[in-house]
Design goal:
This protein is of the alpha/beta class. It has a four-stranded parallel sheet with strand order 2-1-3-4, with helices on both faces. Helix 3 links the parallel strand 3 and strand 4. 31% of the residues are buried.
């Protein structure tokens, strides 16, 4: 999914954005409203993800395997999931909004 499409879809509230990077990286900066579900915790915390709602996963960049693996695992569990083109560094470099800190329940 492109950054432009993700911006539109999050504004409408029809996707769940999942950051699969480690907690320390998430706390340093992440996409607004993203849930932090590191890959190792993805299957242990399935209630965080609503069925029937598309999930967009991202990590460290276009070659980071964490997002690819997350999408594969989510799809295997019956979720509709896609990967964000690029990752957090590209999002930030494009001057798009960024949040810091750990969200409640994140």
């Amino acid at each position: 999914m492109s950054r432009a499409e993700l911006l539109k879809r999050t504004a409408r509230g029809d996707v769940t954005v999942v950051d699969v990077r480690p907690r320390e990286e998430f706390a340093a900066g992440h996409l607004p409203g993203a849930l932090n579900l590191p890959l190792a915790e993805l299957e242990a915390r399935p209630r965080k993800l609503r069925r029937g709602r598309e999930i967009v996963a991202y990590c460290r960049g276009p070659y980071c395997v964490l997002a690819f693996e997350a999408v594969a695992r989510l799809r295997a569990r019956g979720h509709v999931a896609r990967r964000l083109e690029g990752g957090f560094p590209e999002w930030k470099s494009a001057g798009l909004p960024v949040e810091t800190g750990v969200a409640a329940g994140g």
